[in-house]
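Next comes this protein:
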Amino acid sequence: MWKLFQKKAPLAAFITGRLITMLVLLFLLGFALFGLMELAPGDIVDQMMSQQIMSSMDNGTAKMSSGSTPGKDENQLLNEKQIARLRAEFGLDKPFYVQYFKWLNRVLVHHDLGTSLISRAPVSFLIRSRIWNSVLLNLISLVFITLFSFLLGVYFSSKAGTNVDTAVTFFALFFHAFPGLLLLILVQLFAAVTGLFPVTAYPDFTFGEAPLHFTFSYVHHIFLPLLVSFLGGIGGTMRMIRATMLDQMGMPYIFALRARGISEKRVYLNHAFRNTLNPYITGSANLLASLFSGSLVLEIIFAYPGIGRLMYEAVMQQDINLVLANSMFISALVLIGMIASDILLALVDPRIRYGKE
């Protein structure tokens, strides 16, 4: 049945197979995440105990400094029965695989991502309030990286070997290899010293209050973080496109086109350029994944309210529901991007066929 489906609709069969693979990968990822969170020392109940102890010590110190004696109720801590009740309430008294399958059942049957163990807010609400900020940031980075990579890569492939080409290639390699964390810190120090840009990457008011003012303020706040993301991503992509163009320009069909008297502009744009799309589309999903992973550090340093910062806070607080939902959501976006790149690759290159003829 499956082979018949592959024969009649090879592209549809390929997409179906990739979707099934994506679901299996997401299942294994969730299982691994639950296992890793189980191996981490302590849990959310232990954190609550630590916070209560610190609060009790602070209150006791304040009472003693004022000359009064703290009462028993104020110093009373959670006893073992209360701790056991809390762990049972959060589902932490079960093995991690039981917790995972209960979570899967809740998501698939009831379409409920659960509740944050810290804020007690619905996980879907927390993700929805942050995800669009991260998607917007990374899409802007991807658009600018794609646009300038193609423009510079194609242009400097025609200037190969010149001093300008050597200088641009050097700087592209330099920023590609430069540690992103250090560059973000240096850029933030520049903003703090000069005062030309804010040290945070998001305005202190909402879009609904003043849409036009928010748009200009958002561009001003996000310029430096976006510049760092752009410099870190354009180096490798531009060098890949430049190398692909140089490789294509040495192919026999290019010499044949030139021998037929076709203009150099048409040779570059109509023939060689189209063949540079294949490696870029193949690597675009990896580029998007690297942008999302890189935005984690960016969002923490510049206090940008995105999904990466939410993920960091959830991991530090061991909020398993929020960690799992965040990870699954970002992984699903990356896997969907990979499937989309495969489909685009088949559309732009008619030589590619999925399945047997």
Notes: The chain is about 80% helix and 0% strand. Residues 211-249 form the longest helix (39 residues).
